[in-house]
Amino acid sequence: MNISKLISGIVLAASMASCATTGGPSLEPVEVAFAAPTAAEAKEFATRVDAELKAILTRVSTAEWVKSTYITDDTEQLSAWANEEMMAFLSKAVADSKRFDGVEVDEATGRMLHLLRLTSALPAPSEAAERAELASLAAKLEGMYGKGKWCGADGKAKCRDLGDLSETLAQSRKYEELLDAWMGWHTISREMRPLYEQEVRLANQGAREIGFADLGELWKSGYDMSPADFEAETDRLWQQVKPLYDELHCYVRSQLVKKYGKDRVPARGPIPAHLLGNMWSQDWSNIYPLVEPYKGAASLDVDASLKKQKYDAIRMAKLGESFFTSLGLKPLPETFWQRSMLVQPRDRDVVCHASAWDVTSAGDVRIKMCIRPTEEDLITIHHELGHNYYYQQYDKLPVLFQSGANDGFHEAIGDAIALSITPGYLKQIGLISKVPSDDKGVVNVQMKMALQKIAFLPFGKMIDQWRWDVFSGKTASANYNQAWWELKERYQGVAAPVARSEADFDPGAKYHIPANVPYTRYFLAHILQFQFHKALCDAAGFQGPLHACSVYGSADAGEKLRAMLALGASKPWPDALEAMTGHREMDATPILEYFQPLRTWLAEQNRGQQCGW
Ligand code: X8Z
Ligand code: ZN
């Protein structure tokens, strides 16, 4: 993990307490001079903070890596200690940096000081005991998620972890079996609630101490615009894509009514959350067989080919790497293969949720993932390698610049590359036997993509909608679950399959809540990746509809990508976007262009139907 993971994940930042840690590096006390500080002093300060931060980050990442790949009370404690050190360091650095407020500094220094204040996704209060408590809570919450298992209502059934339960949700078509897997997983988060409540309280306090109204305001400040403007921006993008989501929802619901009956799927209401092939109803591609537009028009069963051809985790990761090298990017370092965790160890608890790391912020890139031979995992591998290739392009920059142009960019890179996994490309690598070429085949392929990309959009939006309200106090802890399901229904048109209460804590059943990873980044990424895809296709000289483009093998596309990645966060994100796409705004036009054939088809299918919920 490098800084861009850390700003999302566990801990970091701030308190005014300057000497709460022992042993670790600490900033020299800054002389409180009578003369106004100079630009040269500011630059020297930023450079020094950056160097010390890099050293601390390596210690934090090393401890976090061990904890995530071997969850025990002890590894949790080690990572909490490392994070405490980081929090103390950052809080002092942020406080000291205030001295340079109003000083005319050079552009790079100004940006480093700006980013320093935003470095933490979980800023700590200044009081040492509270800081330690927050670090401990963060480590525990992620551990509880990683260890989660469902062993049946009486605790006597064979225990199943998230991977097993997700497989049931993906493959079973039996209502009761699906319900059991869904309900089972949602029991693991009940005990998180008091810890989460306390985490929110402490992190809000930390955010206030460094000048933000609450933690949500800090999160929304990372986009080179005001928090209010950013919120309006996400609403604008959502309004651009909502009509297409509504059409997809309408069609999918009609097919689920056919499959499960209108007693179980209300023809005009929200869809029960356990019937969409995914624990959180965020990616519906596993129910493609239930909604396939033209039966048999195109065989897209990549899962079957992966199993038949006995793809293992390494071969899948190598396939991902080969896409990036085809663009002229370097192969992954040997250490990637030695140090990554690619398969789930059977002898211990690990955090299976996929992640990409640069442990030293200097080329020690790895991924941690419990790879299974499925198309979904193949795409996730490309997603993770996108992070790793981003890390590699900017690892010579100051560590404060070692992030995406904004966090949505980081999440969009691997996905943009995976948009080039077209049927043409899959045929080329032998994972399907025939490229569907007629209109029916195209609609089938588009449906499968829409079940991933369009279905995700309202989910990507609602998660932080919930957290922003929790952080601001608009949602009281007594209403956590109710507010969650209100947003699920409003945005996604999805409902809990059984009555929920405040004894449940359903937000905690989604990794990014206990792990404290901001989520709007994925919403943005789902818009941005189509902007990137279009720009890369243009660079590759592709002629034809956007959905048919694969940039595989294009050095020109690779160069365009590399140039943007190399900027890291050194410039405001509109500059990076412009360098790649010629535009300075995030915009949903390319995603709508990509799905135009399906949209026309859906409108036809839904004619006369009452859509909405
Ligand atoms: O968390 C992830 C990645 C790691 S950054 C696997 N994703 C989100 C999720 O799983 O909920 C990728 C898509 C959305
Ligand atoms: Zn990611």
From TrEMBL:
It comes from the Bacteria. Gene3D superfamilies: 1.10.1370.30. One of its GO terms (biological process) is proteolysis. The keyword Plastid does not apply. CDD domains: M2_ACE (cd06461). Zn(2+) 2 binds at residues 383, 387, 411. The active site is at 384 (proton acceptor 1), 384 (proton acceptor 2), 512 (proton donor 1), 512 (proton donor 2). GO terms for cellular component: membrane. It holds the Pfam family Peptidase_M2. Disulfide bonds join 151-159, 352-370, 537-549. PANTHER family: ANGIOTENSIN-CONVERTING ENZYME (PTHR10514:SF27). This is Peptidyl-dipeptidase A. It comes from Vulgatibacter incomptus.
